[in-house]
């Protein structure tokens, strides 16, 4: 079994800050765990309004490059996260794993919202296509970045590719209802455990109020735990024999016509 960790980390987080030191301290006895962070976890949330500010976008991307060393130094078995990368005049949102300090590409975000506070369609593009399953620390891992969780055909695709775990880094508001429902449905249709982490708090003028609520769902779609201000980190042990068995249960086994 592999222990996985869901968290809610504060908006505006930076390596070396007091909140970062507290996070590192909370992981002192989690050396065998896989940590899934929130979406693009460092600095204030940028894609608030249009058009894209390429100066701010570049600074945000640079902050995440600098933060890779801090993420790699966390006392856990592996970290799954995402970061903005400036490509031309737009960013890409790239999910990755860090295992023993080694960077491993996982996925780039394909689906982007376009509304007040989340103008991602105007800030981001996609350079590398695909929804793949990648071995990470003893688990077969697929990634759905935030909004992608709402597209259950993608969760089903990852299940068919053998995913034990679907990691869902998020940056979402205070209404957790649709995200909890979507996480449970993703587990039901994929036969994979689903783990999601979110930002919490508010920082930039005009920025959304992020609602926290990291979510853990088992491979039958049952919600195991949700983070809260009093419990900003929750854990679950993923049993790969159970995720494999779930692939043969309804509705996961149902074929397309």
Can you offer a commentary on this structure?
This protein has 257 residues and is an alpha/beta fold. The protein has one domain (2-246): Nitrilase/N-carbamoyl-D-aminoacid amidohydrolase (4-Layer Sandwich). The protein is 24% helix and 30% strand. The chain is built from six helices and 13 strands. Strands 1, 2, 3, 4, 5, 6, 7, 8, 9, 10, 11, 12 and 13 form a 13-stranded mixed β-sheet that branches. The radius of gyration is 17 Å and the shape is globular. 45% of the residues are buried.
List the helices and strands and how they pair.
Elements: E1 2-10, H1 18-26, E2 34-36, H2 54-72, E3 78-87, E4 90-99, E5 102-108, H3 120-123, E6 134-136, E7 139-143, H4 152-160, E8 165-169, H5 177-190, E9 193-201, E10 210-211, E11 215-217, E12 223-226, E13 233-238, H6 240-246
Parallel strand pairs: 1-2, 1-9, 2-3, 7-8, 8-9
Antiparallel strand pairs: 1-13, 3-4, 4-5, 6-7, 9-10, 9-11, 11-12
Helix pairs in contact: 4-5
Sheet bearing the most strands, described?
Answer: 13 strands, mixed
Helical amount: 10-25%
Mean of residue pLDDT? 97
Q: β content, as a range? A: 25-35%
The appropriate CATH architecture is 4-Layer Sandwich
Radius of gyration: 17 Å
Number of strands: 13
What top-tier CATH class fits best? Alpha Beta
Annotated CATH homologous superfamily? Carbon-nitrogen hydrolase
**CATH third-level topology:** Nitrilase/N-carbamoyl-D-aminoacid amidohydrolase
What is the distance, rounded to the nearest whole angstrom, between the alpha carbons of the first and last residues? 35 Å
Spell out the helices and strands N to C.
Answer: EHEHEEEHEEHEHEEEEEH
Ranges where pLDDT stays below 50 over 5 or more residues in a row are none
**Overall number of domains:** 1
Helical region count? 6
């Amino acid at each position: 079994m592999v222990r996985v960790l869901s968290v809610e980390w504060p908006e505006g987080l930076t390596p070396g800050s007091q909140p970062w030191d507290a996070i590192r301290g909370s992981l002192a006895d989690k050396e065998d765990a896989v940590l899934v962070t929130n979406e693009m976890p460092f600095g204030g949330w940028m894609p608030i309004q249009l058009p894209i500010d390429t100066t701010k976008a570049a600074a945000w991307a640079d902050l995440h490059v600098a933060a890779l060393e801090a993420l790699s130094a966390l006392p856990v078995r592996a970290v799954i996260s995402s970061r903005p990368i400036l490509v031309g005049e737009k960013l890409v949102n790239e999910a990755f794993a860090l295992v023993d300090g080694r960077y491993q590409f996982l996925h780039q975000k394909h689906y982007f919202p376009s509304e007040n506070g989340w103008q991602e369609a105007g800030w981001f593009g996609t350079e590398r296509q695909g929804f793949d399953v990648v071995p990470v620390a003893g688990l077969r891992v697929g990634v759905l970045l935030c909004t992608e969780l709402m597209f259950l055909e993608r969760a089903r695709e990852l299940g068919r590719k053998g995913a034990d775990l679907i990691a869902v880094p998020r940056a979402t508001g205070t209404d957790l209802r649709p995200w909890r429902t979507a996480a449970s449905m993703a587990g039901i249709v994929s036969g994979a455990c689903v783990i999601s982490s979110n930002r919490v708090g508010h920082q930039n003028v005009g920025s959304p109020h992020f609602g926290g609520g990291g979510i853990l769902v088992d491979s039958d779609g049952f919600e195991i735990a949700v983070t809260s201000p009093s419990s900003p980190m929750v854990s679950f042990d993923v049993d790969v024999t159970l995720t494999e068995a779930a692939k043969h249960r309804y509705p996961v086994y149902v074929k397309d016509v």
